[in-house]
Amino acid sequence: MRRLLQSLLLKLTGLGLLRITLFSDTYLRYVKPGLRPVLIASGVVLLLLGIVAAFSRTGNGGHAHDGPASGGPDGHASDAHDGHTDGAHEAHAHDGHEGHDGHDHSATPKIAWLLVLPALSLLLFAPPALGAYTAARSGAEPVAVQKKGFEPLPATSPLPLTLTEFTKRVQQDRSRAIQGRTVRLTGFATPDATGEGWYLTRIIFSCCAADSQTVKIHVYGSGSAEPPAADTWLAVTGTWHPAGTLGTTSAPAALDARLTTPIAQPINAFTDDLPITPG
Amino acid sequence: MEKTDELVAAGEGVAVVPVPPPPSVRRPRPWPLGAAVLLAAGASAVLLVGDSGWLDQPAVGAWRTVCLAIIVQAIPFLVLGTVLSGAINAFVPADLFTRVLPKRAALAVPVAGVAGAILPGCECASVPVANSLIRRGVTPAAAFAFLLSAPAVNPVVLTATAVAFPGNPAMIAARLLASLGTAAVMGWLWLWRGDEKWLRPALRRRHTGHAHGHSRWQEFRIGFQYDFLQAGGFLVLGAMAAATFNVAVPRAVLDAFSGTPWLSVLFLAGLAVLLAVCSEADAFVAASLTGFSPTARLAFMVVGPMVDLKLIALQAGTFGRAFAWRFCTATTVVAVAASALTGGALL
């Protein structure tokens, strides 16, 4: 019975991983795209292991007795022997099942049952992607200082920029190339509890959702009177909102919006990239 | 854990006769673990799986997302680590490591520390591997040096550090030196002050994986399965703790501490323990903490791969709680000291 439960745990975990990687893009809510191959591999390994465990007869007992009796291959017969007895105690202390065979590897560690939670969660109720709640609570991350200097801006109008690029142009570009330019930024809406306008935000994963960073652009005059609902994905066209001195950190990363269009959530929602501008 | 150890120790005295205790004797269970697991399971079953009513609150959603993200991120590395440890147990000859490593334990420690650079994973992989090394007869001091250095100095992590701190080779050198130094000092500290009775009894007796008359593949499969299930459970526990901190304390609060240099070193070291960021990503997080001094950020990157909430849970599960809290406390102190010294010299 225990053998079947162990096998079930492994299979559930494996299936959970496969469901979010092979059959949907759900994994992108949690980790970076590059992790997909290893997640699939892990899912397959765990699923296979679970299947083998279910069909294996010897996994649960029997051998526990011949190990010590024949002595270890390294010749420490008595050591191996004691080791086995200890293993038995350990298994019992952990498992609470008495009177079963004593090999420590055949018992299910009690803590393993916690694996049911993420497995079922992945299979049935994959939690949503991080959104406005997280963005509103994180401070505006300081944007890395660009040392190389800035290329001239392309002539396209409206000019697509990532939120990070826009912030850098506003706060670090001494040539003030961004002045008067119409730009097109994409992100999701985060309400501003304190005042006028709202935030256009992107959450960027360094590795996974646990180490995400938030980039925010304050948006004024969204075109309609009401600020957009939290978590809506939008493309915003507009110009820099003049305040402070452009090209220094006194300039706010803010935009006067002219046009706000709802868009579908991009596939690479948690990178700072645009399809046309390599980040 | 003390309680469990006593029980098991008492059991050892009796178990000179190689017969398992009679079925009628009920051994008292180690209640703290049981109770903790039950409580955590109850609470999180509701939180992690449920999907209605107040569970749709954004805070709960964010908690579930962060918790799952840590688990999903770590599972491939955990699989890699447990496959490796299973393979070491089943296929590597028992005397290989004792032949390769220097005879003197004091010399074996730095060698094992440098060898940690081979394992290209994050910290979840190194715990089961270190465990199987000890079971294979490697002196615990060397195995612990490996355990600490493997996630911190491997090529993937150093490359990530170089990407996160462009044009700052001193930071990479400082991370390498401080991490190796901490690993070696902890190994020697174990030789000097360590006590094997803090370890799980199964580990003390150098229980070898492969038993005669038994297919090696079978041994491999069973060892892998057991290690994965156990470590996976502790990973979930650690991820829940880290997610709670992650969601409960907004990042904005952290910037309040960046003022004083000494306090900021201690603060970022503590933050590394609580956040449980994977060692392959922590350089990016450190790079984003721009308000803090370079030494404080170095401490974040040195402490993080060696001690954090999910690692404490994993180590407690693998080596025993008596070991885990002593080892993690000592490692934190040594790692902070090493970062302060290296940071003062190089950064």
UniProtKB/TrEMBL annotation, chain A:
Residues 178-266 form the DUF1980 domain. Keywords: Membrane, Transmembrane, Transmembrane helix. The chain crosses the membrane at residues 35-55, 111-130. Residues 62-104 are annotated as: Disordered. Residues 76-104 have a biased composition (Basic and acidic residues). InterPro entries: DUF1980, DUF1980_C. The keyword Transmembrane applies. The keyword Membrane applies. It comes from the Bacteria. This is TIGR03943 family protein.
From TrEMBL, chain B:
It is a multi-pass membrane protein. The chain crosses the membrane at residues 31-50, 62-88, 142-165, 171-191, 228-249, 261-286, 323-346. The keyword Cell membrane applies. Keywords: Cell membrane, Membrane, Transmembrane, Transmembrane helix. Its main location: membrane. It is found in: Cell membrane. It comes from the Bacteria. GO terms for cellular component: plasma membrane. Belongs to the UPF0718 family. This is Membrane protein.
